[in-house]
């Protein structure tokens, strides 16, 4: 899978550990970047704050975004990503416990690529993460870097 | 199918007619006092018009009756004078002449007698006038012929029909009056005299000929004025009563309006409170959905991690305990999901349409059969059951009812499930019947409560949310739902959809 990597935005350490475990079990854990709130995720993607000077040519192949996040929530992060040409075309999948129709509709209206409900059953959860990783990192084609929407 | 269609069409028409009437009655409700005033005023005017008309008729018929008696008295008096006076003095050297005042020992002619009587009546001051006229007046009469249109008409009419008096209500000398004319018919005792007197204008009179006309004119203006004055008094009385009545009515309506405004304010207040409570519930169910599931996932996930990574350190009992922890988290996850579904049934917006319940039921059973192709179930469905409701919610209700029937017949070799309708007087009652495990009627009251189960989990799985969901859906449609059952025989669930 080369230099393709996932950005995980998750504030719950348990969920972080379980997601990383599931990724590891499916061998898609090379260079996963973890940020623990919406503001940190934005800092990482735009090279600000503690990520100042980061090489912005390196972008994740998939962003796994939780909805309920401290500081800046998931939908707001998505909105800001879609507003900036640098990140407008990055694949974003929301990984959440909320099955609220309202969140789903708002998410897709903002340009979401995928909405995955975190199952309580860890086996199902592992399966969902595996499918996600294979689809977005191996099967799916992303637009070439530097040709982002103007 | 056709009868069901017809009933839907007639329901639509009824809705349209109701809307039309509501639109017609709206202004009436909005301006109640104005409309009532208009109705009352028109009613009063109508009554007064009728009263005035009736009074006029009454005055005229009373005047006519009086004048008829008057005329008969005058005629009778003259006949009496002719037969008892003039005839008896005949041959006794007493002269009978119109000029009796200037001749000693003379008496008046019957006609002269009548005219003198009329003149004296006129002098009494009642305004009544008596006149005699004819097409053949005696030469000494200065005004013996017809004077005006009425007199000409009266002469002509009475010549043609002497028995029928001729009368008109008309102005006479500037006063509203009744003019009444009767025929002066030749009697046997008059003939000899009239045919022999040298100054008689006509000598071939026969008995029954119309000699002339006796007319009585009676002014009615004072009576009419009196009746109008009375009518005015009645009008004033009516008006006063009407004003009082309308005032009282306005007072009552204003009071009622105020009460309804107060009630409306209360309703708005309560609705706002309800909406706030509902919002809190929504926020609650959101956090249930999001926050309760996360720790469950941790429990399950780390239990699995323990089993995977540390199984060497666990004996069989330890592993079994971990499996039980995992099973319990699954079940709790299911409970949370069902609870959310139930709350969504209450919150979702209703979209009323005509729904074919039969098609919906068949779809649900097809899905059930697809999931469990090995099940052998005989499904009977009455076709063409058309109802008005929210298609999505009705499908959820049928999924639960038919899903239950499917589940509780799982131990039957030959399972029967039936959905149909019976038409009662007040409503159509739909039913879902099965020959499954049934239930004891002693627990029927618990059937529709959330998380209440009547069967052991090991026997039939479930969270006990299905029938609570069904009840909420039917209640949201304004219908009723109830059940009958017998252990080991099966159960029947009934519902209505108005």
Layout of helices and strands:
The complex is a heterodimer of chains A (150) and B (498).
Chain A: E1 6-9, H1 13-25, E2 33-35, H2 38-46, E3 62-65, H3 74-83, E4 92-96, H4 101-109, E5 114-117, H5 122-139
Parallel strand pairs in A: 1-2, 1-3, 3-4, 4-5
Helix pairs in contact in A: 1-5, 2-3
Chain B: H1 2-30, H2 32-89, H3 110-123, E1 129-133, H4 149-160, E2 166-172, E3 175-185, H5 188-196, E4 210-219, H6 221-291, H7 293-309, H8 316-347, E5 352-356, H9 357-371, E6 377-381, E7 386-390, H10 391-408, E8 415-423, E9 428-434, H11 466-476, E10 481-486, E11 490-496
Parallel strand pairs in B: 6-8
Antiparallel strand pairs in B: 1-4, 2-3, 3-4, 5-7, 8-9, 9-11, 10-11
Helix pairs in contact in B: 2-3, 2-6, 6-8, 7-8, 8-11, 9-10, 10-11
Describe the structure.
Chain A is 39% helix and 13% strand. Chain A is α/β, with parallel strands linked by helices. Chain A has one domain (6-138): Response regulator (Rossmann fold, 3-Layer(aba) Sandwich). In chain A, strands 2-1-3-4-5 form a five-stranded parallel β-sheet, with helices on both faces. Helices cover 57% and strands 15% of the residues of chain B. Chain B has helices at residues 2-30, 32-89, 110-123, 149-160, 188-196, 221-291, 293-309, 316-347, 357-371, 391-408, 466-476; strands at 129-133, 166-172, 175-185, 210-219, 352-356, 377-381, 386-390, 415-423, 428-434, 481-486, 490-496. In chain B, the strands form three sheets. A five-stranded mixed β-sheet of chain B has the order 6-8-9-11-10, covered by helices on one side. In chain B, strands 1-4-3-2 form a four-stranded antiparallel β-sheet, sandwiched between helices. Chain B has a two-stranded antiparallel sheet with strand order 5-7. In chain B, a hairpin with a 3-residue loop joins strand 10 and strand 11. Chain B is rod-shaped and about 175 Å long. The two termini of chain B are 19 Å apart. At the A-B interface, helix 1 and helix 5 of A face helix 6, helix 7 and helix 8 of B.
């Amino acid at each position: 899978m080369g230099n393709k990597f996932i950005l995980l935005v998750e504030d719950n350490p348990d969920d972080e550990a379980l997601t990383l475990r599931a990724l590891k079990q499916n061998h898609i854990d090379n260079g996963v970047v973890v940020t623990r709130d919406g503001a940190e995720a934005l800092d990482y993607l735009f090279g600000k704050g503690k990520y100042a000077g980061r090489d912005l040519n390196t972008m994740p192949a998939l962003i796994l975004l939780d909805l309920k996040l401290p500081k800046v929530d998931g939908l707001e992060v998505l909105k800001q990503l879609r507003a900036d040409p640098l990140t407008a075309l990055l694949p974003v999948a929301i990984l959440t416990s909320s099955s609220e129709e309202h969140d789903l509709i708002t998410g897709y209206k903002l340009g979401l690529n995928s909405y995955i409900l975190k199952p309580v059953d860890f086996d199902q959860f592992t399966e969902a993460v595996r499918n996600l990783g294979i689809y977005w990192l191996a099967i799916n084609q992303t637009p070439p870097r530097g040709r982002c929407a103007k | 199918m056709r009868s069901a269609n017809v009933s839907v069409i007639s329901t639509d028409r009824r809705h349209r007619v109701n809307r039309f009437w509501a639109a017609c009655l709206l202004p009436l409700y909005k301006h109640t006092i104005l409309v009532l005033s208009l109705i009352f005023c028109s009613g009063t005017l109508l009554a007064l018009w009728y009263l005035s008309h009736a009074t006029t008729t009454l005055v005229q018929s009373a005047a006519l009756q009086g004048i008829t008696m008057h005329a008969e008295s005058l005629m009778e008096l003259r006949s009496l004078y002719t037969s008892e006076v003039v005839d008896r003095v005949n041959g006794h050297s007493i002269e009978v002449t119109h000029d009796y005042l200037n001749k000693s020992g003379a008496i008046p002619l019957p006609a002269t007698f009548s005219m003198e009587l009329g003149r004296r009546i006129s002098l009494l001051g009642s305004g009544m006038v008596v006149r005699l006229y004819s097409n053949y007046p005696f030469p000494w009469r200065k005004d013996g012929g017809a004077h005006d249109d009425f007199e000409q008409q009266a002469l002509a009419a009475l010549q043609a029909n002497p028995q029928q008096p001729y009368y008109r209500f008309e102005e006479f000398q500037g006063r509203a009056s009744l003019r009444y004319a009767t025929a002066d018919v030749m009697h046997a005792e008059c003939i000899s005299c009239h045919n022999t007197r040298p100054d008689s204008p006509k000598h071939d009179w026969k008995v029954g000929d119309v000699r002339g006309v006796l007319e009585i004119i009676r002014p009615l203006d004072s009576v009419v004025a009196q009746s109008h004055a009375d009518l005015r008094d009645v009008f004033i009385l009516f008006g006063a009563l009407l004003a009082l009545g309308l005032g009282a009515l306005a007072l009552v309506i204003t009071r009622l309006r105020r009460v309804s405004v107060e009630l409306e304010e209360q309703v708005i207040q309560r609705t706002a409170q309800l909406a706030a409570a509902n919002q809190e519930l929504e926020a609650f169910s959101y956090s249930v959905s999001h926050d309760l599931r996360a720790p469950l996932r941790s429990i399950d996930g780390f239990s699995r991690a323990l089993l995977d990574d540390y199984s060497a350190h666990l004996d069989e009992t330890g592993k079994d305990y971990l499996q039980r922890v995992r099973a319990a988290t699954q079940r709790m996850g299911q409970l949370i999901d069902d609870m959310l579904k139930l709350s969504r049934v209450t919150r979702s917006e209703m979209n009323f349409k005509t729904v074919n319940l039969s098609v919906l039921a068949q779809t649900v059973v097809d899905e059930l059969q697809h999931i469990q192709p090995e099940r052998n179930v005989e499904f009977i469905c009455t076709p063409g059951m058309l109802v008005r409701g929210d298609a999505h919610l009705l499908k959820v209700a049928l999924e639960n009812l038919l899903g239950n029937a499917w589940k509780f017949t799982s131990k039957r070799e030959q399972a029967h499930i039936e959905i149909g309708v019976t038409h009662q007087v007040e409503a159509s009652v739909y039913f879902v019947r099965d020959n499954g495990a049934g239930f004891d009627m002693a627990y029927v009251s618990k059937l529709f409560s959330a998380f209440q189960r009547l069967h052991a989990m090991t026997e039939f799985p479930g969270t006990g949310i299905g029938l609570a969901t069904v009840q909420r859906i039917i209640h949201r449609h304004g219908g009723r739902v109830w059940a009958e059952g017998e252990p080991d025989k099966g159960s029947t669930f009934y519902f209505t959809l108005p």
